[in-house]
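Note to self: keep these together.
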Amino acid sequence: MNKLTKVGLTALASTLIVSSANAADWSIAGGASISYTNISNTSGANAFSFGDSLTFSASGDLDNGMAISTSMELDGNSMDDRKIALSSDDMGTISITSSLTAGGIGRIGDKVPNAAEEVYDITDSTDYGLASQNISSTNQLGWVSPAYNGLTVSVGYTALDAAADSSWTLEYDASSLMDGLAVGYGQAENGSTSEAETLYVTYAVGGLSIGYQDTTYDVSAASGSDEDATHIGASFAVNDDLSISVGRQDVSIGTNASDEENQGVSASYTMGSMSFTAFANKASNVGGSAGTDTEAKGVTVSFSF
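Structure:
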């Protein structure tokens, strides 16, 4: 190949690359936070922590009318949330994700409204009573349909060595029946080890949002413990910047005589690119063990840029 041909091909390739880059939308978003968290059953631990992340995103339109997008988050010193998605108005969205939900039960694992922190979080290491627990989000394939008369369908699938995690959901915006009403249902299988199902109802009017969710988690192994959970909560937007919430979750675990009881309050306040959150949670009979109680309180200030 002579030098003139090489120069011509190089120029053509450069033009194609530049054209492709110009056709895409690129963005970088960042965030940082400082937290103080006190947990009653820990001693000698540093209550202060901080986080920082950068999210790189790109999106563009294909010639066939579909859209392609990708994003990745640099969280601290590691790549965390990643996603590639292909979408259209008629097809919906097909995606593959890591540490995110591509579709399925993860979309509705907890639909009860809260201002800052879930009532079952922080107090112990296991979030009992969730249909989405133990469903892998590593390289998960998923599909989310467009909304058909308010109904959205989604599926999620994660291939594993032994068996696959799979789940599906139905989410219905019932505003045509009652303004602010939404209902949903989903099922999940964690390989051959467990099955789960969940049902939720939420209602929003003015600044008030309330929700109820019922979840069943069945373990296949005789040595495992089945779980049945009910979760109720409400949040209220005092104004555009301030929200408060309260909630309670009760979880029956196996044959334990005592139910785990989680309750908490939280609040959030936004001031431009700065936000403040605070929460106070209490877990009683943790893991179904009578008299094992934990309390957690915390505040966080976050910045976005």
